[in-house]
Amino acid sequence: MGMFANAFTWWNGASWGTTFFSRRNGEEVGRDEAGNIYFQHRGNPARRWVIYDGSNDSSRVPPGWNAWLRGTINDLPDKSLPPRRKFEQAPEPNLTGTMAAYRPGGSLAAKGIRPASTGDYEAWKPE
């Protein structure tokens, strides 16, 4: 499929229609460190959108850009928000479905042996 993948899909980047609309009606206002491109409508600045660099997963939008997209802040994140502090961790996308997903103890997907039942559980029985 290669270069034609974006012609027919919406889940991986932008389709040709979205790209055409964005170039015709939108003004690029910025890019984030993940390569996502942010647009604002030329005629209606309150209308904002993102074209993802890769899969269309909103958890890949950093918090500052998310605030801008939702209209929580009016100016771009670099101008409206303070810089990230040393102790703050970089945001991570949703890891569900990946090898890095959290797997609590007792989960069938977790490594190790499932702990034995302790007998401290009493099943609910309807009266």
UniProtKB/TrEMBL annotation:
<dbReference type="GO" id="GO:0006979">
    <property type="term" value="P:response to oxidative stress"/>
</dbReference>
<feature type="region of interest" description="Disordered">
    <location>
        <begin position="79"/>
        <end position="127"/>
    </location>
</feature>
<dbReference type="InterPro" id="IPR007763">
    <property type="entry name" value="NDUFA12"/>
</dbReference>
<protein>
    <submittedName>
        <fullName>NADH:ubiquinone oxidoreductase subunit NDUFA12</fullName>
    </submittedName>
</protein>
<dbReference type="GO" id="GO:0045271">
    <property type="term" value="C:respiratory chain complex I"/>
</dbReference>
<dbReference type="Pfam" id="PF05071">
    <property type="entry name" value="NDUFA12"/>
</dbReference>
